[in-house]
Amino acid sequence: MSSRRNFIKKTGIAGAALASVPSFGFNILKKSAPEDVILGHGDYQYKLVKDWAELSAIRNPILNCHEMVMDSKGRLIMMGDHTKNNILIFDKSGKLLDYWGTAYPGGHGLTISKEDDEDMLFLTDSGWYLNKQGKWIYHNGRVTKTTTDGRVIFDIGHPQTIGVYKPGDHFCPTETAIGPNGDIYVADGYGMDYIIQYDANGKYIRHWGGKDNPDENYKLSNAHGVAIDYRKKNNPLVVCTSRNEQSFKWYTLDGKYVKTLHLPNMQVCRPVFDDTNLYAGVCWSQPKVGKTNWKDHTGFVTILDGDKVVSNPGGTAPEYENGQLQKSYQLQNKPILHGHDVCVDEDKNLYICQWNANKTAPLKLERV
């Protein structure tokens, strides 16, 4: 043992001596810190923070992080599909503040709206979930309006009950948007691909779209997302995702077609607006060579200024030729697996919810 102690003592002295020698520009003994992972392009670049959320996988398990919004208190509210805690509420440091929700096995969409100085949430249960045997199970989807602490205000159920759908038509809502007068727009993205408009009390007004619509301007294929575009203050528009067409489609508040924006190789989720920007998770893309299936990790995030793509965090830089956007691709090291939703805070940091991401919490992209 004495020889071992002498060895440690000698090597300790030698180490101290080496540490006192001038390095002349070389860090001889200092272990280099891992380099920051910077994602994105141009003025929209971000440092990747993987372990942002402080969560116990036992106490607060996650299956899929589907969507996230920020409330008026600056809290980040996430919707998932684990019925031990469908709703997780974080502060911006990633600390878990609260959790609730056990009744949404197909928990998917989350939208926030303010009414009389109180934040209201609109939750969508898509009606689909995987059981323990790995089999997809269907139950009737629904939209639920709640307070931020989970008190239910009302439900919007299957449109068959009001004669809009036929018996046997699946209602699988994936998203809602709230119009300037309180109207509720429901995207039936995993069902019949209609956008269904209700008033603020849940009374049916109209619907449009549909996967079998013969008019290409109104046809929606996987109407996964819906949002209100307020960038032109005097002319707000409803924006709908047609994910299988790799497109967003704009309509007036009463459902009249305005325009389509095609994003080659990007199967986008809902549009999220902040200032002049549109953010969207890209759930799937295809590689330059070969093909992938829906279970493979092929996603990233895209950012537009106006109608132009300016950055693709987790993906290749956007390229335009003769004014036409070319295909974008996921980076080979797959820093983002599936971009399902984007939440933007007041400092322009991004929080990325991922579907099918090995039960991981949201990522943070810190603006640089």
Provide a descriptive summary of the structure in words:
The structure is a single chain. By secondary structure, this protein is mainly β. Helices cover 5% and strands 39% of the residues. The protein has a 5-stranded antiparallel sheet, with no helix packed on it.
- Give the overall shape: globular
Strand content is 35-45%
Q: Tell me the distance between the termini.
A: 53 Å
Overall structural class, as computed from helix and strand content, comes to mainly beta
Under CATH, the topology is which?
Answer: Neuraminidase
The helix tally amounts to 1
What strand order characterises the main sheet?
1-2-30-29-28
The overall pLDDT average reads 92
Radius of gyration: 24 Å
Number of domains: 1
CATH class: Mainly Beta
Uncertain segments of ≥5 residues (pLDDT<50)? 1-32
Tally of extended strands?
Answer: 30
Helical fraction: under 10%
For the report, how would you describe the main beta sheet? 5 strands, antiparallel
In short:
With 368 residues, the chain is mostly beta strands. The protein has 1 helix and 30 strands.
Pick out its properties.
single chain, 368 residues, mainly beta, Neuraminidase, five-stranded antiparallel beta sheet, 1 helix, 39% strand, globular, disordered N terminus
Write the layout of secondary structure elements.
Layout: H1 2-20, E1 38-41, E2 44-49, E3 65-70, E4 76-80, E5 87-90, E6 96-100, E7 107-115, E8 118-125, E9 128-130, E10 136-138, E11 142-147, E12 152-156, E13 175-178, E14 184-187, E15 194-198, E16 204-209, E17 226-229, E18 237-242, E19 247-251, E20 257-262, E21 267-268, E22 272-274, E23 277-284, E24 300-305, E25 308-311, E26 320-321, E27 324-325, E28 341-344, E29 350-353, E30 363-367
Antiparallel strand pairs: 1-2, 2-30, 3-4, 4-5, 5-6, 7-8, 8-11, 9-10, 11-12, 13-14, 14-15, 15-16, 17-18, 18-19, 19-20, 21-23, 22-23, 23-24, 24-25, 26-27, 28-29, 29-30
